[in-house]
Amino acid sequence: MTVRQLLGETLLIDGIEVVDPLLPDRKVGKAYVYRGSSGWEVSGFYRRSENDRWHPFLMVLDESHALIRLKVGDPNVMKRAESDPQLEAVP
Fold first, then answer.
1. Which structural domain, as residue segments, surrounds residue 16?
2. Helices (H), strands (E): how many in the chain?
3. How many domains is the chain built from?
4. In this structure, is the dihedral angle defined by the CA atoms of residues 81, 82, 86 and 89, taken in order, positive or negative?
5. Is there a contact between 32 and 43 (Cβ–Cβ < 8 Å)?
């Protein structure tokens, strides 16, 4: 499963636009993939549409690329993060 798919499924967003480390034509910020203590860590930015601002994310994956934790800078998912232990949202 790709980072784009994991983000869309976890945040319940269809048609998510993602700026990630594997996308050479980045529109915003820096994005990274690096080895973490429990697997991999991927950072980047996403938005719902052209009318949305870019939201930063940090995704922690295990060795098999399953989601461990997702931290996003998106106030629109604050409520959802309260009931999802894998999701952390910051304003």
1. 3-89
2. 2, 6
3. 1
4. positive
5. yes
Helices (H), 3-88: 3-11, 78-82
Please tell me the predicted confidence (pLDDT) of residue 30.
72
pTM over 0.90: no
Give the mean pLDDT per block of 10 residues along the chain (91 residues): 85 86 65 86 91 94 93 94 94 86
Three-state DSSP state, 40: strand
Long-range contacts made by residues 21-30, C-beta under 8 angstroms, separation at least 24? Answer: 27/54, 28/54, 29/54, 29/56
> Which amino acid is residue 37, in one-letter code?
S
Residues 72, 91 contacting (CB under 8 angstroms)? no
